Amino acid sequence: MNAAELRNVSFSYGEKKIFDGLSFILPENSILCVLGPNGSGKSTLLKIMAGLYKPEKGVYLFGGQDFSIFSLREKAEKVAFVPGEINTPFDFSAMQAVIMGRFRFKKWWQDYDAADENTAMEAMKTLDVENIASRNINRISSGERQLVFLSQAMAQKAGMLIMDEPSSHLDIKHKVKLFETVFQMKKNGLSCVYASHDIKASLAFSDYCLCLKYGRLFYFGPSCGMSNDKLADLYDIGDAGNLKNFI
Amino acid sequence: MNKVKVLILVSLTAAAAYLSLSYPHAPKDILLNLRFPRVLQGFFTGFSLAVSGAILQGILKNPLADPFIMGVSGGAMLVLLFCKVFSIPDAYFLPAAGGMAAAYFSYIVSRKFSGFSNAGVILSGIAVNAFITALITIFVIFRKDDLIYFFHFSFGNISGVNHREIIYFSIMSCLVFLFFFLKRKSFLAMAFDEVKAVSMGLNAEREKILFFALASLLASFSVGMSGLVGFVGLVGANLARFIFPFSSREYILSCGFIGALLTVSADFAGRAAASPIEIPVGALTAFLGAPFFIYLLYREGKR
Questions:
Q1: What is chain B's mean pLDDT, rounded?
Q2: What would the DSSP string read from start to end of B184-252?
Q3: Residue of B199, B243, B303 to mutate when probing chain A, most A C-beta within 10 A
Q4: Minimal Cβ distance to A90: which of B198, B200, B246
Q5: A50, A72, A83: residue with CB nearest B193
Q6: Which residues in chain A show pLDDT less than 70?
Q7: Which pLDDT belongs to residue B244?
Q8: Is pLDDT of B90 > 70?
């Protein structure tokens, strides 16, 4: 049973084609990092895998089934998505944000209860942010915010976590916490897909790597198979030797 | 702590209502047949407008949204225009229906041209309001006798005469509020982040339509009953957020009570200040609301 599979998937935004005939298979209980230059379709791919977009052509299979046939609640049970940016002008405390991850468990008229609060708190403890539970999310540091949003996704208790650039605003302390948690998720039987520009950490903490270069599948295989030369080619860096300073 | 604040708020509103009922002193049957319905109408007009404003501000993620933003006021005025032209009596539900129709029109237009984006809804509402206001202006140039009529409508008209309609309006406002309160979780998820909301299992598009419909219903019936009472929706919801956190259970209820307090007080002041001349509610809410709103913006800037 594979965690996820794309078969010949094509997708466009209106006139603009993002990718054409993309295929790969992600085995169960693995971590996938998605790399590539900006504008290559990484975010689009993640959104398709999270069920937010439907492939134009081809099919996206989740656990062997066509993902588009699932209801929204079923999708929420299978995948939790963390977008690159979340902006709201209103004040939510960290606890109030994290507890929203429990939405799929409630009936429409039910409010969140003490059990939900406990689950939310546990998720925050895993990420070491339980001490800011009552703080306003618009007033904490961007690193703490990102970890709060990750806690929210974890409280959702989905089988797969998909994250778009989760480490981009993080300092080293929070980056370490993030990737360690992702690695721990695998041990707990979950899978994870993320796009990131933190190349070294991404490759170190993932099983598989998918590289997109302007909509084309550049590489898909074990992360250990990505060499500096391939990276230089992917990102159009002339001198692969310089890369040693960055990764 | 929040519960204490709500209690204080409710007491203040009750005090304002009591004051409005008892001054100037009048015989019992006037109080019962004229003043009480009037205070009740004022209460629920303010309540509905502030709750409507709160819903729209949350969904559009814009603290400056007001209840008439979807063209509700324009739609109501257009219906009244027709009533004048074709000499139909303007029962209160006709302008309300006009308001709902205009909101629906804004939805359709924004959906067609901008995929139902927040900006699209606001822009089509502005367009609808602007167009119809222009139409009304041209109309009253040719029919100057109707100018006073539209003037009174534009500044709110809480007369308290339609007893039955006031009862219906009150009940409807309470029911809509209760339903919305039950849907709190969805509302908060939408006000947080629409993309995340979908990923958490919410049908964002359907919920958005639902919340727009609820807000339009409250605003339309308010306008149909009492004309345009400006600023209550805007100031009420913003003021509530200074006292109660947005995601607290007490927030929406407090919006309603603050709106009610503002409207009942303004109506009372309008009656008492220049007695026997009555200053319309809308004039007072604008008069008090505008400087207060600037103060809120100043506080916001300091944060």
A1: 88
A2: HHHHHHHHH-HHHHHHTT--HHHHHHHHHHHHHHHHHHHHHHH----SHHHHHHHHHHHHS-TTSTTHH
A3: B199
A4: B246
A5: A83
A6: none
A7: 92
A8: no
Q: How much is the pTM?
A: 0.91
Please give the C-alpha separations between residue A199 and each of A206, A231, A241, B234, in angstroms, as whole numbers: 11, 9, 15, 48
B200/A100 touch (CB, cutoff 8 Å), yes or no: yes
List the one residue out of A43, A9, A47, A42 whose CA is nearest residue A25. Answer: A9
Domains in chain A: ranges and CATH: 2-243 (3.40.50.300)
- B49: nearest Cα among B252, B237, B219: B219
Contact call for B198 and A72, based on CB within 8 A: yes
Contacts B192 to A, Cβ<8 Å:
86, 88, 90, 92, 97, 100
Q: What is the 3-state secondary structure (H, E, C) of B167-198?
A: HHHHHHHHHHHHHHHHCHHHHHHHHHCHHHHH
Yes or no: is domain B2-302 CATH 1.10.3470.10?
yes
| pLDDT single digits (tens) A114-152 | 999 999 999 999 998 999 999 999 999 988 999 999 999
State the nearest Cα–Cα gap between B74 and chain A, in angstroms: 28
User: With 80 as the cut, is the pLDDT of residue B134 above it?
Assistant: yes
Answer yes or no: is the ipTM higher than 0.90. Answer: yes
Structure tokens at B162: 């339609």
Which pLDDT belongs to residue A71? Answer: 94
Is residue B76 a contact partner of residue B133, using CB atoms and an 8 Å limit? no
Q: Which residue has the higher pLDDT, B132 or A82?
A: A82
